[in-house]
Design brief:
The complex is a heterodimer of chains A (337) and B (291). Chain A has 337 residues and is mainly α. Chain A is built from 16 helices and four strands. Chain B is built from eleven helices and two strands, in the order H-H-H-H-E-E-H-H-H-H-H-H-H. The chains are: A mainly alpha (337), B mainly alpha (291).
């Protein structure tokens, strides 16, 4: 399937979902749906680096929060100077640019070393960015910042419907980008890095450049997902924006869905995201995070290729386009270096 | 700018003392990450588990936290050995440790933290002991015993570990497993068993480190997260698996953090270790005392 056709197909599906959501007439559906869509973007973004290249990013929350806080900074600036506030798509581009640049810088400093260093550095990045934000009074510091959400968006009704629409479009864009990467030279390059970086380097794959491209795209998408968040939540606080739940979810969703293609993060995010929305309402938000943690550990032990891997195992004749490239299993009996 | 020397000296001394404690927190990671190459990012979660163990025993029986931690060492050792077994069977055996192994430990970190939150809530917990509260005064210096005692026991712990690693057969085998597993196998030693023992020891140190932590400061479940960056910064700076290097790096970071907290305010301190980590990775990835 060619990319424009794929994109059009998903825009169609998104339109159908939107129509369904409107048919319920319940604004809560939009609130819940927004979160699920946000996780689709986050997990797809994580997977571009984590799934395709094999580099684990624990700092998803940091990139997400960077997007959110660039929105807060701009909001403060425009409202203090009586300027007209920027529209959300523009804020998304700015948030994405900021996170992308930080992603690039992070990658440049750490990616020349072994993968574990990158993972640890991303984890620490979240702590440091949080420290910076806590000490930055302009965006509210540790007290947090208020962003006034407009009541309505003209043709759609409640503003949340507009936010949902935007986030869903971003999700469609993210999936399309992920699939495009998967079927391009870039994607094959990423796969060589994941499977054997040394061999890839030796055969002339420009590994560092490819990894930097991956961190930048991944970071930018996460920042874009974060940019509308202040409008959604209304009150932004460092401890919740940098919360571990974004980090754990954006790792758990692709790993549970399957990391080798764009389908995995989508399935993982929709399943786990909806499950969490239901669990938050019916049980409690702490318990639903526990569920995610247990599912993550369970899946990485029992089903290393996620739901997609399970389906693929039981249904070998899947159309190739749907599952994407399969990971080559290395089946060495003992790990002796 | 008025520069106060007694403030400076006090900051440096408390940095060294805290550094000793950081060394105890890090030595487990120096073994697991530095020697065994297992990226155990859940280590701070085990330390918090150690803190809560000390807390429970202390509040119910009034038992000393450090003695409690020593009694609990075998339990933490068993926990570590068990986790390594799962890790080995599920990931290391298939050479999949990089991505899935990391996610596995991340999940464990998360499960531990959320379980503690669900059970104990997010209130700060603390322990009681005779040495919490009083301080020694030497001229300009103020040395609170609640930091001095963990400092001394930490150094003792590191000394014991270093002796085990360099003088005993098992210890030497642990050092060897990081260099050449095949050679170790040829000598008739099972590298998996050695790694299991080493990982058990690394988690056992978390029991003591956790007791120190709750002596030094009140603890709530998410405190451990602050230590993730710090612990790995120290481990990398110290040269990955060198215990003397770990002590030096820990004191260095302790001093810099303490100076930052004194002269710029405590809210900036968490950024210090990360700065150090990035600088080390960029300039000298082998660390101060790299092999």
């Amino acid at each position: 399937m060619r990319t424009p056709v794929f994109f059009a197909l998903w825009v169609g599906i998104a339109a159908a979902v939107l129509a369904l959501a409107f048919a319920t007439g319940n604004d809560y559906v939009f609130f819940a749906g927004y979160v699920v869509m946000q996780y689709v973007v986050l997990s797809t973004a994580w997977n571009i680096l984590g799934g395709y290249c094999g580099y684990v990013n624990f700092g998803s929350a940091a990139f997400f929060a960077l997007g959110a806080y660039s929105t807060v900074a701009i909001y403060k600036f425009t409202s203090e100077n009586d300027l007209y506030g920027l529209p959300i798509p523009v804020l998304m581009l700015i948030g994405g640019a900021v996170s992308g640049v930080v992603g690039f810088g992070m990658g440049y400093l750490t990616l020349r070393l072994r993968g574990a260093f990158f993972a640890i550095a991303t984890l620490a990045l979240a702590v440091v960015l949080q420290t910076l934000v806590v000490n930055w009074d302009y965006v509210g510091g540790s007290r947090g910042a208020y962003v006034v959400r407009p009541e309505e968006f003209a043709p759609l009704g409640n503003y949340i419907r507009y936010l949902f629409l935007i986030m869903m479009l971003l999700a469609v864009a993210a999936i399309t980008v992920a699939r495009m990467i998967e079927h391009s030279r870039l994607g094959y390059g990423f796969a060589t890095i994941r499977d054997d970086e040394l061999a890839a380097e030796a055969s002339g794959v420009p590994t560092l450049r490819l990894k930097l491209i991956a961190t930048t795209i991944s970071g930018a998408l996460m920042g874009m997902a974060g940019a509308p968040f202040p409008y959604y939540i209304g009150y932004l606080q460092p401890s919740s924006t940098f919360g571990l739940d974004y980090a754990v979810n954006s790792i758990a969703m692709p790993l549970i869905g399957g990391t080798t293609s764009w389908v995995g993060p989508l399935i993982g995010a929709v399943l786990l995201g909806s499950l969490q929305q239901i669990a938050t309402v019916t049980i409690s938000s702490a318990v639903n995070l526990l569920i995610v943690g247990c599912l993550l550990v369970g899946f990485v032990i029992v089903a290393p290729n996620g739901i997609v891997g399970l389906v693929h195992k039981y249904w070998q004749r899947k159309p190739d386009d749907f599952v994407g490239r399969r990971r080559v299993e290395t089946d060495s009996p003992e790990a002796v270096p | 700018m008025i520069f106060s020397y007694d403030l400076l000296i006090n900051a440096i001394v408390s940095g060294i003392l805290i550094g000793g404690f950081y060394a105890a927190v890090t030595c487990g990671v120096s073994i697991s990450f530095g020697i065994l190459d297992i990226v155990n990012i859940a280590h701070p979660a085990f330390i918090i588990l150690g803190s809560y163990t000390a807390y429970i025993v202390n509040t119910t029986y009034g038992f000393d936290p450090i003695l409690t931690a020593i009694v609990m060492l075998p339990l933490f050792y068993a926990l570590g050995a068990g986790i390594y077994q799962v890790y080995y069977v599920s990931f290391e055996k298939y050479g999949q440790e990089s991505l899935r192994g990391l996610a596995f430990f991340f999940g464990i970190l998360f499960i531990t933290e959320v379980s503690l939150v669900l059970y104990f809530g997010v209130d700060y917990r603390y322990v009681d002991a005779a040495y919490i509260g009083p301080a020694w005064h030497f001229g300009l210096l103020d040395i609170p015993l609640r930091i001095l005692v963990p400092f001394l026991v930490s150094l003792l712990l590191i000394a014991v570990l270093q002796t085990i690693l360099t003088r005993t057969f098992i210890g030497r085998a642990i050092m060897a497993v990081s260099q050449d597993q095949l050679a170790l196998r040829l000598l008739g030693v099972n590298p998996i068993r050695i790694k299991r023992i080493a990982f058990g020891i690394s988690i056992a140190t978390a029991s003591l480190a956790g007791a120190f932590l709750i002596i030094i400061q009140p603890v709530e479940p998410s405190v451990g997260r602050e230590y993730i960056g710090r612990v790995f910064a120290i481990c990398v700076l110290g040269g990955m698996g060198s215990l003397p290097g770990t002590v030096i790096a820990a004191m260095l970071i302790g001093i810099v953090e303490s100076l930052t907290a004194t002269f710029y305010g405590p809210s900036w301190a968490p950024a210090v270790s990360f700065g150090f980590l990035l600088l080390t990775l960029a300039v000298r990835p082998a660390g101060l005392m790299g092999r």
